[in-house]
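User: I'm new to structure prediction. If I give you an amino acid sequence, what do you actually give back? Let's try with this one:
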Amino acid sequence: MKYLLLLCILVGSCDINGQETIPHEYFVEWRQPKAHLNSFIANCKLNHIEIQYLDSYQPFGIITFPATFQREDEIKLLTNESSIKHFHASKVLQARGCSPNDPSYNRQWNMGKMEFDEVWCYTNEGISPLGDTLVIGLMDFGFDFRLNDILPNVFVNHHELPNNKIDDDGNGYVDDYYGYSPISINKNDEHPEANHGTEVISILGAKGNNGKDITGAAQNIKILMCSGMSESHMIACYTYFYKMKELYLQSGGQKGAYVVATSISLGFNSAFPEDHPNVCPLYDWLGSIGIMNVCATVNEPDHDIGLKGDIPSLCPSDFLIAVTNTDMNDRFVPSSGYSKLHIDIGASGEEVAVLQRGGMLGSSSGCSLSAPQVGAGIVLLNQFCGKYAQLLKNKPEDALKLLKSMILNCGDPLSSLSNITVSGNRFNVFKSMLCLETYCNSLKEQSFMEIEVNPLKDGNLKVNLGFDQFGPYTLRIFNPLGQMIDFLDENHRPGSVDQTIERDVSNYPSGIYYIQFLFNGKQETKGFVKY
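Assistant: Good question. You get back a string of structure tokens that encode the predicted 3D arrangement of the chain. For your 531 residues, that looks like this:
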């Protein structure tokens, strides 16, 4: 974003994080009362410049230049006018959300319903605040993962040389370049091209905003695949996810994968924990290393899982979230499993757009499509809060319990879910993000900004933002005469890897300058020296 705003003002109207400026129109704040603007008003009339006062009691107005004016002349006139305290180019109002350019996104009503489009407006690179590439483990029957819209988000084990029949990275698995497939004869990464798994992986993590097909709920999250069809395969896949996370932590991020969640849309429809004694303990084991797990419940009518069974939904773990299905009208889908004691939350998975085997665009329904969107949301939430990211590494179980409470309690309440799920809510990733923001703010109180002085010798001003809160801010730079010479309007995205604003001050004359930061009704001003 360096210099982008200033460049747009100089050369004309353009998009900045989706914001369009209106050509030749500026919002101004007067330094002097209206009565003292006579000379400026006369000059404006002479040059056919229009002035509109927004309120006779407030020092604000709109200045509109004729279309014959050049942008640089407008900026020069406004900057040199001593009666103007502040100005910026007027901007076009925007619709909320960050809709991607994927051609079939208009069919993905579920993304807007759970407000993924709001979260995409903030950090969307798939990186934690501590710099870790975020990964979700996904188990299914198999995946047609080489599709153009899916392959970019598949986790690649670059420390493994493919197809050489050697365990190159020493993780105990041979040729796990594209994940692991205990279902294959060679126990490597040969995944069957199953349609069910292809639909699931596409709604979870198809590459977003790339002009192709659809978008996944997690547009840039890496997916660690594991294929299986049996209880033993299920145990093998969860073990693989655990070992890859363990290797990552032990190697300081040099090997393995930073797995923060898993998702599975398979299970045993009429089973109870005692029928599968080796499955349920896996979730506490995964939680101990910082992995939250999501599962889909059954697609059966009138199926109270507490009475009729369902594994893994009935597994009693703090580190498992069981998901049922809701439709476009936010109604519970009757052909889905439910239980006030065991099914945690609902998600939008009825008649949703997916990619099918071979790359065909289709529509599908079921809890199998609901659960992976919750899993994707969990990984997205790991992008934002530095305090949470640190807690996940230091006290993983505490962090996961905290995150689970935010997911269950910070959703959209639905009357159709109130007596058949634990939370009574349908998942809303944006509301969960706001709850996470509240947690971050309660832990961190400090100055808005820190200025690094030494780099100014090289002509580069660096401002470090020292707070964890979402929202728009304004940064202004004033010269020794009190004239504003630079400004920036941006959206703060806490949790991003780089929270430093850089401005080029190489052309500033030597002297003392002032930088003003405005955010959420608060203002902070600091001085700095340009040598």
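You can read the tokens as a compact description of the fold. Here is one thing that stands out. Confidence is low (pLDDT under 50) at residues 1-18.
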